[in-house]
Design brief:
Layout: H1 2-65, H2 70-190
Helix pairs in contact: 1-2
Length: 191
Amino acid sequence: MSGKAGLEALKLKISEKERQIEELKLKNLALMEQTDDLIDSMDIATVQIKELTSEAAEISRNKKVLAEMSNSVESKSLQIVQEYQELQTQTRQCSANQTNLKKAASMLRSAIQEVGRKQHEELKRFDEQTPRLKEDLQNIKAKNQAKLNNLQMRKRLLSSKLESTKSSYDLLSSEVVELSKIGDELSSKEY
């Protein structure tokens, strides 16, 4: 019974490991999708940066032509520079996020491989233990059968002794009755 319970516990462990592997795979897919989204966002930001850089150059060229609007152009230039700097900061952050996501994806892949390796080891150990458990079960069954056969033989022997004892008792009882009758007859003849 304990061997069967151990086998069931091992099966439950294996099922749990498989469920954990599936969860890790789903998390890995989600991280990879997020990485793709970040890369797309970086491409868009790069295009925007190029556009803003182009606009800044055009504003610089028009600055000489539009001297009377220099104050307005300067404030717009400062605004563009600030936006450009903000975009550069965002680009750096996106790059850092992408690096972090790649590291996380790598760690996740390693974790999945480790779980897979452990699952393979568990299955191998289970496969190695199964024949021994079957052999142990057969040995236990054989021992129990031998005990049962021994008990049945003892039961038959005791039954035989009981029958013999009953026969002896019945014989002695009938002899006692006969002797009692003889004793009664002898007693009645003496008086």
